[in-house]
Design a protein that fits this description.
The protein has 326 residues and is mostly beta strands. The protein is built from 1 helix and 26 strands. The strands form 5 sheets. Strands 2, 14, 15, 16, 17, 19, 22 and 24 form an 8-stranded antiparallel sheet that branches. Strands 3-4-5-12-7-10-13 form a 7-stranded antiparallel sheet, with no helix packed on it. A 4-stranded antiparallel sheet has the order 6-11-8-9, with no helix packed on it. It is globular and about 55 Å long. This is Pirin family protein.
Length: 326
């Protein structure tokens, strides 16, 4: 998925120390995506740029797209990251410059590792379901892996954990409670989609060296005493061995975590780099039709890169400011 902001801000993030256990509700913002999709951008946000290696989170839907084109994101470039496509409802057709053509369906993992350079498009198929609901996430690649050759993985059989009288957790990436996703990772992290039946009260096992955040997808749940409505992100910090969750109604959340990302990164538009010069070179290559390859089969032109910011990048930490605490 592309960042379609016409004036994307460039930021330097990553690095910094560990944060102890906190309960910071992080605000998102509404962002148009393509022709008819509106997303809630939850990471980066006003208070935080990363959670572990997770550096970008968009949550969209549930949207009624009957009679509508649905998601239509033209070919666009990526470098230095992995894209994670995750659906609760609907379908997304993925095409990329490697020649991959794959329809991603609910509870299936579409994982694209850009490495040094790749381009892709995402669209709702012509004959698509009535409802579209899901999330698109990015994972920053560590320096030693960001120059690797690009690849695409599709996993339709992911591990599921059940228990607690009403809990079901699908492990999207990494490992949770001894269950490991087949998706390739390049830093210690976890991503899981967890559903709760009404009346469930559980304690999720966590890694104390990881920092975590939860995104509420459906319903309302109480996470470590904080009640969350759909579309909200709660940053939890590090130093936790478990996480209490109570669901009085049927609800779902996404758990994201990982070791704090020690490297500083520059993230602008669809690029994750280490300097402004790298970003400028990548933009120039994309506009010249070089390096990123060609996506075949999409009905429409590729996205043009927005202008680079007029001001130079300024070093800033992985945390922008202290958000509201509870």
């Amino acid at each position: 998925m592309s960042n379609l902001d016409l004036k994307p801000a460039a930021s330097l993030c990553g690095g910094g120390g560990r944060t102890g256990p906190v309960r910071d509700v992080q605000p998102g913002k509404q962002v148009p995506l393509g022709e008819s999709t509106l997303v809630r951008r939850l990471l980066p946000n006003l208070g935080r740029r990363m959670v572990g290696a997770w550096c970008f989170v968009d949550h969209y839907g549930p949207d009624d797209i009957a009679g509508e084109p649905g998601m239509q994101v033209p070919p666009h470039p990526h470098m230095g990251l992995q894209t994670v496509s995750w659906l609760r409802e609907g379908e997304v057709l993925h095409r990329d410059s490697l020649g991959s053509l794959q329809t991603v369906r609910p509870r299936e993992l579409g994982l694209m590792t850009s490495g040094r350079a790749i381009a892709h498009s995402e669209e709702s198929p012509r004959d698509h379901s009535r409802v579209l609901h899901g999330a698109q996430l990015w994972v920053a690649l560590p320096n030693e892996h960001r120059g690797k050759m690009p690849s695409f993985e599709h996993h339709s059989d992911l591990p599921v954990i059940t228990g607690g009288g009403g809990l079901s957790a699908t492990v999207i990436l990494g490992e949770l409670a001894g269950a490991r996703s087949p998706g390739t990772t390049y830093s210690p992290l976890v991503g899981a989609d967890i559903t709760f039946r009404a009346g469930t009260h559980v304690r999720l096992p966590l890694e104390s060296d990881f920092e975590y955040a939860v995104l509420t997808i459906e319903g309302e749940s109480e996470v470590d005493g904080v009640r969350l409505s759909p579309g909200s992100l709660l940053y939890l910090g590090c130093g936790r061995g478990e996480l209490p969750v109570r669901a009085d109604v049927d609800s779902s959340l996404m758990l994201l975590g990982g070791e704090p990302f020690e490297e500083q990164i520059v993230m602008w538009w669809n690029f994750v780099a280490r300097s402004g010069d790298e970003v400028a070179a990548a933009r120039e290559a994309w506009m010249a039709g070089e390096r990123f390859g060609t996506v075949h089969g999409y009905d429409g032109p590729p996205l043009a890169a927005p202008p680079l910011p007029a001001v130079p990048l300024k070093p800033r930490g992985r945390q922008r400011s202290t958000g509201p605490r509870r």
